Amino acid sequence: MIPSITGDTSTLFSTEPKDSLEELFDREREVGRLKESVNERLVLVLGLRRTGKSSLVLATLNSMNINYVYVDVRKVYDDVSKKVTVDKLIDELHSSLVSLSKKEKLKKALSELEISVESPLRIRVSKDTFRRVAIKIFDALNGLGKTVVAFDEAQYLRFSTVGLRPLLAYIYDHLKNITVILTGSEIGLLHDFAGLEDPNSELYGRYYKAIEVMPFTRETSEEFLRTGFKQLGADVDQRVIERAADELGGIVGWLVYFGKLYQEKGDAALDEVKEVGSRLVKKELDELFQKSPYYSHIMKAIAVTGNTRWKNVVDYLVAQTGKNLTNATISRDLNNLVKMGFIKKENGTYHIADPIVRYTLLEKY
Fold first, then answer.
1. Are residues 150 and 109 part of one domain?
2. CATH code for position 251
3. What is the pTM of this model?
4. Nearest 5°: phi and psi at 356?
5. CA-to-CA distance for 362 and 269, rounded, in angstroms?
6. Which of 286, 295, 284 lies closest to 335, judged by CA?
């Protein structure tokens, strides 16, 4: 999440997730693919953190005049317990159902479950009854006709206290009017959660559509900033725009924050974005580095050298730890970092796609 700044919310530099196509920029291809995919059973929307996946899904669904339920799984993930509890998941699902409460068929089905859509949810669901209640809710949604159920940042569902893959498999196999959309910034972990290539998973072998939301190109980043400043009636030097495009790497969340902050900070805005962004990223990295004693060294090696080969990572690890680690250990941690979206592997080299993550590693560690 990007820190919120109050002010006009009708421009490209709004820090809230976009919910209409008019607010999206240069995502026509992705919007077209998502509209086509709504008739499929399962859709994955993938991309780095802060590239606008949530905005893409919400804006596209709103443009289609289609029934949908949207669950932001980050809201129900508990940072302390590291769990997604049944109660919180049902609460979040319930709040999204409120928007569909005028559908009498859904309202009747939910009332039979003693779930009110006119007041805060009062029931509590145990692990044992969750599947039964959830199936009835999704059966009711299926009865509405074409309906999309979107789980944003769905990789967090792997922390659920109740198994969700059987439920998703039931929806896929039996509820033909429902399309499930799973978005994820930790792409490999989302695949691991869904288990689409795992013979032991209930979802193994199911057909799915994948849509990747890429960072903007350098040219598109500049055009995005020029358009946003034009909306605000601001005359910004091209050199400022070029520097921001260079240093923020096409990550739309950082570009939005820069554009918003420039109205207050002027030429100091870029450095401010990097500092505020690095504090946000450092919190993410501190949590990440608790999971392995070698993650920090691996990412620092890649941050220092840029496009980094295996040997560079090994040499850096040996120099920093004084240990001759096995290839299996290094490979495991590298693969995990790729799965979590913190590093990318292309043409045999590793790099950090988000420049604020790289900046944080170089400046804060």
1. yes
2. 1.10.8.60
3. 0.87
4. -70, -35
5. 20
6. 295
